[in-house]
Design brief:
single chain, 118 residues, alpha+beta, 2 domains, 3-stranded antiparallel sheet, 4 helices, 3 strands
């Protein structure tokens, strides 16, 4: 089974579906939350060969599955609607957004220390 990346029409969300051909990947994508409002002709799947190994009988990779999330994060995915308080529960490696948040928290702590020293 082949893995295919499909983006929503705004380009701010994507998913990975499994299908044998590009046309079948379009059909699978129409069933996903990411692409359910798109016309068949608007869906542009492109191959994601690295994810072929992740096929385990499901039509789509599942962000809530710890193994899928680790794999996707390793390949550049991150949460679309994320909350920093949920990041500590994430099964994947720290993503760029979490690292930026931590840097910001360190900056705020340094500012507070400087203010207290004055």
């Amino acid at each position: 089974m082949k893995a295919w990346i499909v983006d929503n029409k705004d380009g701010d969300n994507s998913t990975v579906v499994f299908a044998e051909t590009r046309g079948k990947a379009r059909a699978e994508a129409r069933r996903t939350e990411c692409c359910e409002e798109m016309e068949f002709t608007e869906i542009k799947p492109y191959r994601f060969k690295e994810a072929d190994e992740m096929y385990r009988g499901k039509r789509e990779m599942d962000w809530d599955d710890p193994d899928d999330r680790r794999f996707l994060k390793k390949h550049g995915w991150s949460c679309v609607d994320f909350r920093y308080d949920e990041c500590s529960k994430c099964p994947g490696e720290a993503c760029e957004r979490w690292e930026e948040h931590n840097e910001y928290l360190e900056y705020l702590k340094a500012e507070e220390r400087e203010e207290a020293d004055r």
